Amino acid sequence: xxxxxxxxxxxxxxxxxxxxxxxxxxxxxxxxxxxxxxxxxxxxxxxxxxxxxxxxxxxxxxxxxxxxxxxxxxxxxxxxxxxxxxxxxxxxxxxxxxxxxxxxxxxxxxxxxxxxxxxxxxxxx
Length: 125
Prior knowledge:
This protein has one domain. The chain is 48% helix and 22% strand. It has three helices and five strands, in the order αααβββββ. The protein has a three-stranded antiparallel beta sheet with strand order 3-2-5, with no helix packed on it. The chain has a two-stranded antiparallel ribbon with strand order 1-4. A hairpin with a 2-residue loop joins strand 2 and strand 3 (91-96). The longest helix is centred in the first third of the chain and has 28 residues, at 10-37. It comes from Sexangularia sp. CB-2014.
């Protein structure tokens, strides 16, 4: 008699489904994008609507650039052997310890302070 196969763990099922999903996504996504923009209804834009579409895409690009700038200014990483003093509207607000922190951009002004311990044997430096 052959031994019965051991049941697979749920994690291995999840890993195999994730692998299949990522493979199909990388293969199918380009075809979906091409088919989306080659449909006659989407390509047949009248000249009066062409300026509106261009203005929409320009505003979309500007909004994405602005969002990237705001996100870049709101995420702060305090490294080991550092603290960050946070001033809100020019007054002390809090001290951030090492780790990942989110601040309010253009309102909170961070100032990084490096520190370290110096151990001496009682001799003058």
